[in-house]
Design goal:
This protein is α+β, with helices and mostly antiparallel strands. It has 2 domains: 2-109, no CATH class; 138-406, Rossmann fold. The chain contains 16 helices and 15 strands. 38% of the residues are buried.
Length: 415
């Protein structure tokens, strides 16, 4: 039995230290984050951490959440220590290719190419390590309701736009006619539709979501395979928006530059491209992320709507109607006659959202990025201004190899 306590321990491990019964050597100082769960008989956590310190030469800082009365985590990484603690997660915050812990599930070292965010591989996917505790807490504790709406994307695939549209469709009929008092006028879409893993469950916190009005509207970058079980098993609705991998990569590269200090140069695009092509990107591999939702949408089309960014840009009226119908709030004949569909399109457009003062200033959510950083160009085909012909061909070939067998294609604009 385990006490229902989370203890987060930050370890600064120096070269050639001993951990447990094995030696794990490291060529440079490495920061590790380890999450322990404590057995019920371990009443003195400081003593147990001290036992570990006796064999590892490390600096320890830990935090205990009194309010977490049921905080076990499933499907985590394990490493065995001689103390009575069981490690339930181990995260590397520097490249640690020479550290080989005894894990029940292998943990890949963080690649050096992406300076930020730092990534770690979990269940085949590369996750931002600062959100890993939030991912685990979300998977374990989030309880989906039948009327929930969950928006899913890979990063930089039209997430902000999808949030604005979905929010407008789901608010009351009277409110969606009133653009003068619309919440988007004063609040960024990411604050109105929070991310599960990086906002609501950030740092492993457990929010109380029971009093939120229905339908509850959430978002996530998690692959389908990593969604909370309740999300997959419930009758909640999932909307997935995908984007051409070329534009996705270019937009992602520009966005991740904003995480770096002003005096630090970004990762060269050529290096970042090789990582992306090799499947290493936030929440990637990109193609496996798409396929998870694509296959699920074919199996359960009444619950999962699969949309494409390029098609939404090309014919927004048709796809806005499609989205509204899926959400259970179709446009009435009178609303169609009044041109409400077109009004919503214009109100939620890139040009409209970027012109709002709230999106020119201020910060939103985790990691507290400036609102303006969520908007760049919002166009289709910008990749041709950045990628070489060879890069384009490599992504085309990989996409064909990965996707076409499952009937999934995307419009290659700008070729």
């Amino acid at each position: 039995m385990f006490k229902e306590i989370i203890i987060i321990v930050v370890l600064f491990v120096t070269s050639n230290v001993m951990q447990s019964e094995q030696t794990r050597s490291c060529n440079s100082t490495t920061k590790l984050t380890v999450v322990f769960r404590q057995r019920e008989e371990d009443t003195d956590s400081t003593t147990q951490v001290g036992k570990h310190m006796a064999t590892t030469k490390l600096t320890v800082v830990f935090r205990q959440r009194e309010e977490d009365t049921d905080s076990t985590t499933q499907e985590s990484f394990f490493i065995h220590f001689s103390s009575n603690f069981d490690t339930i997660a181990i995260i590397f915050t520097r490249a640690t290719s020479n550290i080989v812990p005894e894990l029940e599930e292998p943990l890949s070292s963080i690649e050096k190419g992406w300076k930020s965010p730092q990534l770690t591989q979990y269940q085949r996917f590369w996750l931002p390590l600062r959100f890993l505790s939030g991912v685990m807490a979300c998977r374990e504790r989030f309880e989906a309701c039948k009327n929930d709406i969950i928006l899913n994307t890979t990063p930089k695939s039209g997430t902000t736009w999808l949030k604005a549209l979905t929010l407008t469709f789901t608010i009351s009929n009277q409110a969606r006619h009133d653009f003068h008092n619309h919440p988007l006028l004063t609040t960024n879409p990411h604050a109105l539709v929070p991310f599960l893993e990086s906002n609501l469950y950030a740092d492993g916190q457990i929010p109380d979501l029971t009093n939120l009005p229905s339908p509850r509207l959430f978002s996530s970058h998690l692959p389908y395979e990593l969604l909370p079980t309740s999300t997959i098993e419930s009758s909640c609705r999932i909307i997935y928006l995908c984007r051409n991998p070329k534009d996705t990569f270019v937009s992602l590269w520009h966005f991740l530059k904003t995480f770096l200090p002003e005096d630090e140069p970004p990762v060269p695009m050529e290096e970042a491209f090789e990582l992306f092509h090799g499947g290493i990107s936030p929440y990637g591999p990109f193609w496996e992320h798409l396929l998870g939702y694509w296959k699920a949408s074919l199996e359960r089309p009444e619950r999962i709507l699969f949309m494409k960014y390029e098609e939404l840009k090309e014919d927004p009226t048709f796809h806005c109607r499609r989205l509204a119908e899926f959400l259970g709030c179709p446009f009435s004949t009178e609303e169609e006659r009044q041109g409400l569909v077109e009004k919503i399109e214009r109100f939620c457009s890139f040009e409209s959202l970027t012109s709002l003062e709230v999106n020119k200033s201020g910060k939103t959510g985790v990691p507290g990025k400036a609102n303006k950083n969520f908007f760049r160009r919002g166009i289709v085909g910008d990749w041709k201004n950045h990628l070489t012909a060879e890069m384009s061909e490599k992504l085309d070939q990989l996409s064909q190899q990965k996707l076409e067998a499952f009937g999934l294609t995307y419009k290659d604009v700008g070729k």
